[in-house]
Structure formats: structure tokens, C-alpha cells
Design brief:
Pfam families: Plug (PF07715), TonB_dep_Rec_b-barrel (PF00593). There is one protein chain. By secondary structure, the protein is mainly beta. Helices cover 2% and strands 54% of the residues. It is built from 3 helices and 46 strands. The strands form 11 sheets. It has a 23-stranded antiparallel sheet that branches.
Amino acid sequence: MAAEAVAGGRMVPQNGTKSRSEITQAYIAKQAPTPNVFKLLGNLPGANVASADPFGMVSGNMTIRGMNSDQIGFTVEGAPLNDIGSYMAFPTEWVDSENLNEVTMQQGSANLDSPVIGASGGIVSMNLIDPSHKMGATIAGSFGSYNTHREYVRLQSGDIGNTGMRAFVAWSHLEEPHFRGAGDDHKQHIDAKLVKDWTNGSRSTVALTFDDSMKVAYLNPTLSAWQQYGRGANYTEAFSPTDTKYWKLHQSPYRVLILSAPQNIVVNDKLGFDFTPYFYWNSGTIASASLLSENAVYSGTQKYSIDLNGNGTTTDKVMMYTPFGTPYVYRPGLVSKVHYTMGRHTLVFGYWFDWSRERMVNPYSAVGENGGPANVWGYLGNVKLSDGTRLASYDNLTITRVNTLFFGDTFNALHNRLRVEAGIKESMVTRIGYNYLPGAQYRTSMNAAVATPNLGARYRIDSHNQIFADVATNFRTPTLNALYNTYSATTGKVATQANPSQKTEYSISEELGYRYQGDILNGSITFFNYNFTNRQVSTQVTINNAQITQNINAGGQTSRGVDIEMGLRPWHHFRPYMSAEYLHATIDNNYQVGSDYLPTAGKTAVRSPSVQASVGLDYDDGTYFAGFAVKYVGRQFSTFMNDQAMPGYVNADMNFGYRAPKIFHTHPEIRLNLMNVGNNKYLSGVAGVAASSRAAQGIYGSTIAAQGSPTYYVAGSFAALVTAKIDL
């Protein structure tokens, strides 16, 4: 049986020294063709996915073993995908599901050669399908709930003469009206891949992904707003000249281009070289609006009196479009390595270089008569000062340089039954920031140089049984937000304080596991332990009515638990699957507020459900197929003080399909995907955390006021999607 048949493509036999889960195209092809890899990984052990809409057009969030998505590295064809400045991950911009060959999730730590600097919570790697050796095409169309529709075309060149090259290019368009509130999301997407196979076993690849999307934000409500309004807790649908929460003022355009060119060069049976040059570019806007008093308009700390509405006075209150924009991110890089086999040892030495230039600005521009912005990107028609300077409350440029050297040795003994891997990576990260706001420090910088050794071993007892263990160190430098103050557009006061001396997060992780890979049953159990210092916790804060990601230094943290995963190869066409996790994650330090401390030591870490479990079943006889997956996620705290939490929940998805006999050289297929069967109304994840949600007594006796109101993702409603596909 093919490996991808295990658990319907939810499992692949593993032989490494680290915990690792993998899904294949056999599983992906039966899911709803929505552009969000988080949803595809949601049933794997340790993965806790917060959905925010039925079909995955909204990124939502994902944690692995309690580590947020901005602490997980993501790559496609060897190119890094996390934002280099904030480490945020935007899965809806990456790869269409039809074009994914497999997705691997390494829960504990990144690999020695992984081009990531913030992945203290593991790594997710994606590869596109290889172009076919035969010329052909795939055409698909989908239609479903809320008038959602999608069109998809993929063209295969087949082998191009005797060149050894072949290629594919795929295009899709998706439109998804909102399931709650006004607005709709839409996007166009292109994936392409060119492969050249050389006669000596070398291989050259060029892969491209381009995404152009427009999304209307969903409001992430507080717990009290959710309890009062349910799914109605959202941006307003009727325009008012003073309502900054009108939905048209929260439309966010984004464009992303990712190029990667992995080159695998075989010199002989002992020596080889790998080079992966890549280029990442994006441009986009997080939309927002502010109500400003014309006689007190601020840029940084500078106060201005400006006639914003052009009526000849400066005494009005005027609503302005004030988005947080990223005009550009330019990010070229190169991962290069040489590997040499010497007896039982395979040595690898490599270098990773990454350079980025990221521009961010929060300008002021007019709101149109219909309530929408004059320009959704926010860069045109900006308010100018008398000297021609653009008025803004956030205006900076960040340059980040990464230089990483790594060396490793893989040792095989006992006829390859024993495998030992050891390595060390030295990473040097420099950030330079230029703040163009009045009153702000013009130039700031931060530097970090961190060594991260790792050691792992796997012993194959027999053809079915393995044990493995690894110890790894990880680090995460502070985000670019630490370089800059942010200011209120209405008061000029500091909204968030710069902290360029913020310490780098460092962690040590250990895993001990057992795998059974038999003729029918595959399974694994992994015990894990993490120790963090200067744990950086991602949260959402509202600045000028935009939901912006910031980070909190939460001190030390200890996380330990166990992951279980089991699946069957086909048994009477059935392939069951099960995964589960127990997690005990605790805060090690009290949290400082002013001159006192909140008593947070020993409390449960945020976004860390103690129990989650998934059960799935796949049936496929070659003509008819069907499946379901049920996921339970326990309660999750949203404050360091554990004085607020979101309840646990259950979600169920189903799929049904039919592959028709060959008709005129075509292979038709139709399938139905059902999401959130039962229409369970629940909060799916923690968006914004806080140290405390109500007043508490500090350890020195003072009364410490509430430090914020956590916010939450609202899960998508029940939805159905029918997809018809033909292969030519």
C-alpha cells in the first residue's frame, strides 16, 4: 500500500529523531479547496486551530503545544513565509490546496538548516506538487453557502522535448461573502513550478506564488460582547459620520509574491551542494479609522491644527481613514549548504543570509460620502502639512539582517538501525529602525547573536518499532515593534512603548517518543518538555481602531505534556485516525506592573488547553469516498492571572465524493464538504491576551487595576461547498 493511504493521507511513516506529523495530497484533495493551511493541519497532534470564517479566507490562528503561530516557522519550497519583522503568519496568502503535495508539521523545533529565527514552537514545511510528465489540465468550480464561489484552472506542460524540464501553472479566484456582518472577501491566486531533472540525479526547481486579496475584517469581540451579542458582535453595517467601526473602513488589501529556486547538485555519491535562493515581497494595509478634533491632530508628539474637511474652520470633529499600511517588504535571501558522506558520517556545513527592508506608515486620508475610504490602500490623497510632509501617526523603516552559520553530523550505525544527529547553529540578527515621526527617536537598533545546539537519536528496534529522543535549543529575537513608540492620533500620548533592549527569548526543548509502523496500524506517542526564558507572547491591541499585533514579555514558562497519534492503512476501504494531546503549561514568574507584581507564577499559560483530541474516519473504494473529523479543544485562559478564559468546544466536518468513470479522456469528480456540522456557536481561539481582566492585589499589597480586555476569534457557522472537477 502507498504510504499516503495511512489514515487517509493524515499520516506518513517517519524515521527521524524528532516528533513529526505529515499530511499528503491524498487527504488534502478531499477537503474544501480553501486557501488556509491552518485548517488542513487542525486535526494533527498539538495543533490548535482558531478559525474565523467557514471557508478559511480569514487567517485566524494556530498554536502548536501552546506556542502561537508567530512562534512557528513556515516555509514553502524552502523559502521562509513568516513576516521577518513581526513573525506573523498569513496562511491564506500562500498556496492553493490543489497545488500542495504534502505539509509536514515538526512540533518540537526547527531543523538545523531551516531559514527561520523565531520558530521556538516548531516548523511547518510545504512543497508544491511536481509538474506531470504528461501534458494536461485540471478545471474545477465550487459553489456553496453565502454565495461563496471559486474557480480553478491548472495547466501542465508535460515533458518539454528532451530538455528534462516540465512545468505547471495554476490560477484560482475565490469570493466569500461574510457569514456575519456586511462585506465579502475575494482573491486571485497563481502558483507555478518548473522542474529540471539532470541525468546525474541533480535537480533544479523554480517555484512561484502570487496572491492578490481584499478582505473585510471581522471584529474579534471581548467575552462580554460575545455573551451579549453572539455572532452579532461585529463592525457596524450602517454608516454614520462619527462611527469608526463602520465596516467599509475595515477593508484590507494585500498582495504577496514568493519566489524560490531550490537547486540540488550531486557531484558524486559522497559530495553534494544545495542552494535555495528566494525572494519575498508584499504590500498591504490593515484598515482603520479615527475621529479627530481638527484643533488637536497629532503626528507623534507634535500637535497640529488642521482644516481636515475643508470648510474653512478648525473646530470640527472629523472622521479620517487612518490605516496601518505596509507599502512594501523586500526580502531576498539564500540558504546554501554542502554535505559530504564519510564512512558512517554525513557532514553538513551551511550558511543562511537574509536581508529585508520593511516600510510601515499610518497616514491620514479622507472618508468618502458613502462611508468608505477614498483609497483603501491609504497611500493616496493623504493629509499634508504646510511643508508638504505627510501627516501620520506611525511612520518608520526597518532593515533586518540575518547571518547564520550551521554545522551538523549524522551518524548511522548497526546497519542503519541507530541514527544520531548533532549540530550547532550560530545566528546573528541585526535590526535598524528609522522613525520619521516628530518627537520620536530617529534611529534605533537591536542586535542578537545566539548559538543553538541540538542533539537527537533514533533507534529502530525492528522493522515495526522505533524509539527516538532529541534535545534542541531555540531562540526568538524581539519583533520590530520593540523599536518604536506608537502614538494615539487623538491625544499624542504613547499607545505602546518602544523597548529596543527587550531580551531575546530562549528555550530548551526535550522529546522522548516511540513509533509503531506496522502493516495495518501506525502510531506514535511523544513526551515533551519546554523551558522558556523571556517568553514572548503575541497579543492584539487596538491602536487608532485597528487590531494590531504586539508582544508581551511574559518571563519564564514551563510546558510539558504528551502527544498521541494513530491511524490505519486501508481496512475494507476504511482508514480511521486519532490524535490527542495533554498539555501542562505554567508561567514561572510574577508579572511586573509598575512597582508591584501580579501573582502569576504557577498560573496556566495563555492559549494552552490542557486537553485536545481528534477522531476521523476516511472511506475510499476508488469510486466513492467519504470522511469526517471531530475535534475537541478544552478551555483556554486568555490572561496571565487566569481570571478569564474561553470555554472548550467541539467542531465536526464531513466530506462526500464520487469519481465518475472516464468520459471522453476526462476524469470527472464531484464532492461535498460540510463545515461545522450542527452549526455550533463558539469562540474558536484567543486573539488578544491581557495580564489581567479585573483588579487584583499585587504581591506587595497594592491594588493593580485590570490590564486589559482579552478578545477572541468567532468560529465560522455551518457551511456547505460543492466542488466539481475534471482532469484532462
